[in-house]
Design goal:
Elements: H1 7-37, H2 41-67, H3 82-109, H4 119-145, H5 148-177, H6 184-211, H7 220-229, E1 234-245, E2 248-257, H8 263-280, E3 284-293
Parallel strand pairs: 2-3
Antiparallel strand pairs: 1-2
GO molecular function: monoatomic cation transmembrane transporter activity
Subcellular location: Membrane
Family: Belongs to the cation diffusion facilitator (CDF) transporter (TC 2.A.4) family.
């Protein structure tokens, strides 16, 4: 049995996700209590969004653990697709939370209620700072590990920060405006739901592309051609295909060589091209080389 794919990257992603889960548990309790006692639905909606963070982060954690498993007889290309699947679950959960918040906000706008308490602003300001720090740190891990699930988890934290920021603005308007402005808090929650849906799309689109084996971003043709042409005997690249699976990239490459060389020499050139690509691009897990006669 082979060793798991990129265990260090998977472990980093799992640790960052667990940190987010622990912090979100605390934030749900703080925001929920402050929103309930302080008459702020925007803050309660914010707590609900953090609660979905916990659930989806668990999905991300499971997805990362699954993606890091070694290839086996039933999964010869590994289990990497579990990672973008986890990201898609996050996106769907965000949409669900946004719809729930929007519906409740509209209901509250239509019903008179008390102005939120001033101390809720202090809670929200602290939440914005904590969530933005979480977003930046986890997003950095996602970028370094090239993990769509970790990036999705990071953007979930950013959406929570946006929700808290809009709630802060809404409550401030309600407090400054006085009577007649009580619903500013609910309008803020409604606006936050639109931001959350936007972030859900931001998460969903690249993850869905990965599931569909969409060509990853970057000038792969130029990079692969530069590497391959550095191998003696290679005349050029006929065509290529690249797909991302979890933390890894798989490449199919058609290399052009002289049609007069022996089969064995063509075979050796193919191995050299593969070795050169694996050496230059550590994120590539496997390369399938097809030799084309010139």
């Amino acid at each position: 049995m082979e060793e798991p794919i990129k265990p260090h990257q998977a472990e980093r992603g799992q640790k960052s996700t667990l940190v987010g889960i622990v912090i979100n548990i605390g934030l749900v309790l703080i925001k929920g209590a402050a929103g309930w006692l302080g008459n702020s639905y925007a803050l309660i909606a914010d707590a609900m969004e953090s609660a979905t963070d916990i659930v989806t982060s668990i999905f991300v954690w499971v997805g990362l653990r699954t993606a890091a498993k070694a290839p086996d007889q039933n999964h010869p290309f590994g289990h990497g697709k579990a990672e973008p699947l986890a990201a898609i679950v996050v996106a769907m959960a965000l949409v669900g939370a946004a719809i729930l918040i929007a519906v409740q906000s509209i209901q509250n706008i239509q019903q008179p209620h008390k102005t939120p308490a001033a101390y809720t602003l202090v809670v929200l300001a602290g939440v914005v700072v904590v969530k933005e720090i979480l977003f930046r740190r986890i997003a950095q891990v996602g970028t370094e590990t090239e993990s769509s699930a970790v990036k999705a988890d990071a953007w979930h934290h950013r959406s929570d920060a946006i929700t808290s920021l809009t709630a802060f603005v809404g409550i401030s308007i309600a407090l400054i405006g006085g009577p007649g402005y009580e619903s500013a808090d609910d309008w803020a929650a409604l606006l936050a739901s639109a931001f959350i849906i936007y972030n859900a799309y931001h998460i969903f689109r690249p993850s869905f592309g990965e599931i569909m084996d969409e060509t990853p971003p970057g000038d792969w043709q130029k990079e692969l051609e530069t590497i391959a042409m550095g191998v003696d005997g290679v005349k050029g690249i006929d065509k290529y295909r690249v797909r991302k699976t979890g933390f890894e990239y798989f490449i199919d490459l058609h290399v052009t060589v002289s049609g007069d060389i022996p089969v064995r020499k063509g075979h050796d050139i193919a191995h050299k091209v593969k070795a050169a690509i694996l050496a230059e691009k550590p994120a590539v897990y496997d390369v399938l080389i097809h030799i084309e006669p010139e």
